[in-house]
Write a structure and sequence with these properties.
The protein is mainly α and 116 residues long. The chain has a domain of 77 residues. The protein starts with 38 loop residues before the first helix and ends with a helix.
Length: 116
């Protein structure tokens, strides 16, 4: 079964419309004649409406959970960046102290050699 493509765009993405999230295009809506709208039809519509609402609610809940998780991760990231900065400063300070101590030891040793 071959799908029709738009004449201006032969890419496979054009099958799904111009949206970047590749949503499937819906078929053309065909009105149901009144004489075919029986109890079975209305029951199908009711079940379909319930399923659509359930799907929308589930998607909304997933999106809310993702947004909350992103907020938490951003906060944790900010804390970790601050800790990295503090540790880098501490490392630099300790490195300077070590260099000063080594320089002092060298000058002390050199002066003892000169005195002897």
């Amino acid at each position: 079964m071959e799908r029709s493509r738009s004449p201006n765009n032969d890419s496979p993405c054009s099958l799904y419309g111009s949206n970047s999230n590749f949503k499937r295009q819906r078929g053309e809506k065909k009105p149901i004649p009144e004489e075919q709208k029986d109890d079975k039809y209305f029951e199908r519509r009711r079940r379909n409406n319930q399923a659509a609402k359930k799907s929308r609610d589930a998607r909304k809940m997933r999106e809310d959970q993702i947004a909350l998780r992103a907020t938490i991760l951003e906060h944790e990231n900010a804390i970790l960046r601050a800790q990295v900065l503090t540790l880098r400063e501490e490392s630099s300070s300790l490195r300077q102290m070590l260099l000063q101590k080594k320089a002092l030891e060298l000058t002390t040793r050199d002066s003892q050699i000169c005195i002897s």
